[in-house]
Design goal:
The protein has a domain of 110 residues. Helices cover 48% and strands 13% of the residues. The protein has 22 helices and 13 strands. An 8-stranded mixed sheet has the order 1-9-12-6-2-5-3-4, with helices on both faces. Helix 9 runs antiparallel to helix 11. The N terminus and C terminus are likely disordered.
Length: 452
């Protein structure tokens, strides 16, 4: 890596980036200028280049804490399931039986559990609970929500449980409708497979009817009035929305049509919009939300080759719906370690992240010569240097180091994709709460290229 002085003397684009870079030292003032750029925007979407990097989670939490404490942000919405996050929300707002963050995160049990059951999330959730303890009015407490749609079974259970408390007859009708899924155990992938290959009848009519009834009877359920009643009805209705959208999502997984990716990101964007509306109605001020998702969802798809082929993202939809009220932050790294599985559904390993490919954004930012910094893409020198297609790396919950280019890279224009980019040159693996011997040992030796 070249010295900062050498880069600063460079008359080319690297020198421009070095001059525009804001160093990240770990000091309280690291993000002062970033908060100035964010200003009064209502939604800040903060990405990550992998689902298993400690540094991404830690820096995202640092920014979020300041947005909540100093800029009036009212919620964090994550790339996680709605009912699982609801338990955490009750913990941070003081309404749960759980007394520890680890317990409140217990519903994040399906693969990949380490995404949210990890040390960094525990620390943030505990901070959020302590912050809320100073807010007497429940409408002013900072909330925690999930945007995703994989919770077919648990969302159905949550709808029925809510109706059991407010309308037992409606709960009976909900059980009858949702019994349509009984032949597959209410498991989404089994449902999609049964539709495509076993001649099963779809449950679309039943889930739509349930959502329509819940919405139609909302006035009666809210006759008790009060903040809590409105909030409980909203949570139940969103669970019914999850069931409806998950049913369509699992159909598309096996039947084709609009890509399941686009269905999922549309659902997350609509959920974000519903949260903005609901929290603004029940809160003391207009809602402002921080979104935690992968770069692949946060970044604007129109600045990628995937977008050219028709893929959409939450970040793109947020910009289209909110305009300048949305602010998109991406993160990159050059090398280090990552927590990821070798394949879907397998236990997590701790891998060595290979140095970024030479023709990538990550390698270009590595050559700036600074270990940690952030850039505003509105700066002319930054926009000039980062405009144009380069490879961008994306590691999800699976890492395939021997096939990195095919599995983890795509072409993007970083300057148009994000409003700000954090580059953390060398990063560490996220520590799961449920560590396994495989994670402790580290990368399986057979994945190293031969000859090294």
């Amino acid at each position: 890596m070249r010295s900062v002085e050498a880069v600063g003397a460079d008359r080319g684009p690297l020198g421009g980036l070095a001059a525009a870079a804001h160093l990240i030292h770990g000091s309280p003032t690291d993000y002062d200028a970033l908060l100035g750029l964010i200003g009064d925007r209502r939604v800040v979407l903060i990405g990550e280049a992998s689902h298993g990097t400690h540094d991404f989670y830690a820096e995202r939490a640092r920014i979020t804490r300041r947005l909540i404490a100093e800029r009036g942000f009212t919620a964090v919405a994550i790339e996680g399931d709605w009912p699982d996050a609801t338990r955490v929300d009750r913990y941070v707002t003081g309404g749960a039986r759980d007394t520890r963050a680890q317990d409140a995160l217990a519903d994040f049990a399906r693969f990949p559990a380490w995404m949210w059951r990890n040390r960094d999330v525990v620390a943030f959730v505990d901070w959020l609970r302590a912050e809320n303890a100073n807010r007497a009015d429940p409408a002013t407490k900072a909330r925690f929500f999930g945007l995703d749609l994989y919770s077919l079974r648990s969302s159905m259970e949550a709808v029925v449980a809510y109706l059991d408390g407010v309308d037992p007859q409606a709960a009976r009708r909900a059980r009858e409708r949702y019994a349509c899924f009984d032949h597959v155990g209410a498991e989404g992938q089994s449902y999609g497979y049964a539709l495509a290959h076993e001649g099963a009848l779809p449950c679309e009519g039943e889930v739509v009817a349930q959502l329509v009834e819940l919405r139609r009877r909302a006035g009666a359920y809210l006759s008790r009035d009060g903040w809590s009643a409105r909030d409980q009805q909203f949570v139940a209705e969103q669970n019914a929305v999850v069931v409806r959208d998950a049913e369509e999502y699992y159909q598309q997984m096996y039947r084709g049509g609009e890509s399941s990716w686009n269905l999922r990101d549309r659902h997350m964007a609509r959920t974000l919009g519903a949260l903005l509306d609901h929290l603004s109605r029940v809160g003391a001020r207009p809602a402002k939300i921080v979104v935690w998702e992968h770069n692949s969802h946060v970044g604007d798809a129109r600045a990628t080759t995937k977008g050219v082929r028709g893929q959409i993202t939450v970040g793109q939809l947020a910009r289209e719906a909110l305009g300048d009220d949305a602010f998109l932050i991406g993160m990159t790294t050059y090398d280090g370690e990552v927590t990821a599985a070798p394949d879907w559904g397998r236990p997590a390993h701790r891998w060595r992240v290979r140095p970024a490919l030479p023709d990538s954004h990550e390698a270009f930012l590595h050559d700036v010569g600074m270990p940690r910094f952030w850039l505003a893409t509105s700066e002319p020198a930054v926009r000039a240097a980062l405009t144009g297609p380069r490879l961008e790396r994306a590691i999800g919950v699976v890492y395939r180091p021997l096939h990195e280019r095919q599995s983890h890279y795509f072409l993007s224009d970083l300057a148009r994709r994000f409003d700000a980019v954090l580059h953390l040159d060398r990063t560490e693996a996220l520590e799961p709460l449920d560590r396994s011997p495989l994670w402790d040992v580290g990368e399986p030796p057979e994945t190293f290229p031969s000859g090294f």
